[in-house]
Write a structure and sequence with these properties.
By secondary structure, the chain is mainly α. The protein has a single domain, classed as Orthogonal Bundle (Hydantoin permease), CATH 1.10.4160. Helix content is 76%, strand content 0%. The protein is built from 19 helices and no strands. The longest helix is centred in the last third of the chain and has 33 residues. The chain binds phenylalanine. Phenylalanine binds next to helix 1, helix 2, helix 11 and helix 15.
Length: 449
């Protein structure tokens, strides 16, 4: 059985949690979602989701995790009436494995591009679009990189909480912020940078459709790592002296900051080099490399860029994996090594299938989606919000209010002004808005329009 540890320092706990939140969701997905869907209008809806649903649900997961100091299944068994809702841990573990599977495919692409950047191949390529299309459709290369990435992920996880997860986060998170700042400054210095900023920040409310609103909520959940007990699991390693509300606020602010900075890093250079941002998901693999090619210092910048993405993504996959590793360790009594191995084996099998969905399996569709798209859609737009409803209802309605207040105030040692508004949001605002956005997206209110 794994030994239950704690993060060594409060800073380490925050670095690891921010590491979980900051990932491809911020640097890869947020900028193009915002760019394509109304710029500042999208960002406004996103921020609203972070404040009224994001922070309260983070706090809910933190309270449950830190109070029980257990994996998701053990925590739900201890806190739900009669231990009955521990079945929900199966949903969390499934969602986490689905996410790692499609997420590590993109991480694999990042590793390939990092190596190409180092070897100078990226900078000298002729046609980046064709190269990328060819690469993702190549069954051997894309599977290989996905698997190699998952092995790197495994090597960190096997070393355990303090020597693996916390140490990596302590090094990578500050470095990530420094690199991001360097890129933002470089980007703002490009001629015509304002155009990119305008694209990102000028509000276009007419672009906000139900689809976009549901997308903004899904994005907030995904970016904050919410609803699948990832934060619950990390909080189970927090010290009893940490302030949960403070930690939650810091995580939400830093995560949002990175998303906005990523937009500032990307769009000004895209416009300045006469490119269009419509490429969406392929932007960072097709458009940016060709920009680095023309930019002074492009060789070094391309290496740093893909290294930044690598750091952002591995600290996230580590956190997704920890959900099942904690479960395998504590409920199935596996050693840390075996638990990490089982998690990696599951991710390798499903990840390889997702990687192939860009090539040989591209015609294999379920509900009109490839496996990659299906895993992404089901986890971010369905399972994570469901998890959000579950955890907010559990904490707002089911768990004894005194326990919640005790946990938020560290047994009366802290004065927490935000406790009431947070509980209010968990009781009413978060579950109702999540359900409404769902129904809206399903067309339930079309008769009103
Ligand atoms: N928050 C991560 C990102 O923005 C993704 C993630 C989702 C991580 C769910 C853990 C759990 O990329």
């Amino acid at each position: 059985m794994t030994e239950r540890g704690q993060f060594a320092t409060r800073l380490g706990a925050i670095a690891a949690t921010v590491g979980s939140a900051v990932g491809l969701g911020n640097i890869w997905r947020f900028p193009y979602e915002a760019g394509q869907h109304g710029g500042a209008a999208f960002i406004a809806i996103y921020l609203l989701c972070v404040v009224i649903m994001g922070v309260p649900v983070i706090v809910a997961e933190f309270v449950i995790g830190r109070h029980t100091h257990k994996n998701v299944c053990g925590a739900l068994r201890q806190l739900s009436p009669g231990g009955k809702s521990h079945w929900f841990s199966a949903v969390c573990i499934t969602a986490s494995i689905l996410i790692i599977s499609f997420y590590s495919v993109v991480c694999g692409w990042i590793v390939e591009y990092l190596i190409q950047a180092i070897s100078g191949k990226l900078i000298s390529a002729q046609d980046h679009n064709a190269e990328f299309e060819q690469f993702v459709a190549d069954p051997y290369r894309s599977v290989l990189w996905t698997v190699l990435f998952l092995i790197a992920n495994f090597l960190v996880l096997r070393r355990g909480l303090k020597n693996g997860i916390e140490r990596v986060a302590n090094v990578m998170m500050p470095l990530l912020f420094v690199l991001l700042m360097v890129f933002c400054v470089n980007s703002m210095l490009q001629p015509g940078a304002e155009k990119g900023l305008k694209f990102l920040f000028s509000p276009d409310f007419s672009a906000i459709t139900p689809h976009v609103a549901i997308g903004a909520m899904g994005q907030a959940f995904f970016s904050l790592s919410l609803g699948l007990s990832c934060l619950l699991t990390y909080a189970s390693y927090f010290k009893d002296s940490d302030s949960l509300v403070k930690n939650a606020t810091v995580v939400a602010i830093l995560d949002t900051l990175v998303a906005v900075l990523a937009g500032i890093m990307i769009f000004p250079i895209v416009f300045s080099y006469g490119m269009t941002p419509e490429a969406g998901p392929k932007l960072i693999f097709e458009v940016l490399p060709s920009i680095f090619q023309q930019m002074p210092g492009g060789y070094v910048l391309s290496i740093l860029f893909f290294f930044l993405l690598f750091m952002a993504s591995i600290t996230s996959t580590i956190s997704m994996s920890e959900i099942s590793i904690a479960y395998f360790g504590e409920e199935l009594r596996m050693s840390r090594s075996n638990a990490s191995l089982l998690n990696t084996a599951l991710a390798v099998v499903l990840g390889a299938l997702c990687a192939l969905s860009f090539g040989v399996l591209s015609e294999f569709k379920i509900f009109g989606m490839t496996l990659f798209e299906l895993f992404d859609y089901v986890s971010s737009n369905v399972l994570l919000p469901l998890g959000g409803i579950f955890f907010s209802v559990l904490m707002g309605w089911v768990i004894d209010r005194r326990l919640v207040e005790d946990e938020l105030s560290n047994h009366g040692k802290l004065k927490v002004k935000m406790a009431r508004p947070i509980i209010f949001c968990l009781k009413y605002v978060a579950p109702i808005s999540i359900v409404l956005v769902f129904l809206y997206g399903l067309g339930a209110f079309n008769w009103l329009l």
